[in-house]
Write a structure and sequence with these properties.
mainly alpha; single chain; elongated
């Protein structure tokens, strides 16, 4: 799979997205991909092909994401929490 962090940052460079979101949004994408990978790659390639010409809200809509909804942030935080749990098990 393509490197989400780099491609997301490049795509949103001109779209006034909060810099901290540039690192968190890919985690939400990863959570979506792990839950339902069907059609994810096509949607993601479409997002990248916009070249940063669309507003971030318009780009996230095909994924069912809304940054104003707390559930959006919960999905990324849940992924981080599971990563921490996994690290604690192996340490």
């Amino acid at each position: 799979m393509m490197p989400l962090y780099t491609t997301w940052q490049c795509s949103f460079y001109k779209n006034q997205i909060n810099p901290s979101d540039q690192y968190f949004v890919p985690l939400c994408f990863l959570a979506i991909y792990e839950d339902n990978p069907t059609n994810f790659v096509d949607k993601y390639i479409s997002l990248l092909s916009s070249g940063g010409a669309k507003h971030h809200k318009d780009l996230l809509t095909p994924f069912g994401l809304d940054t104003s909804n707390p559930d959006f942030w919960d999905s990324g935080l849940s992924l981080i929490s599971s990563m921490i749990d996994e690290l604690e098990k192996i340490s």
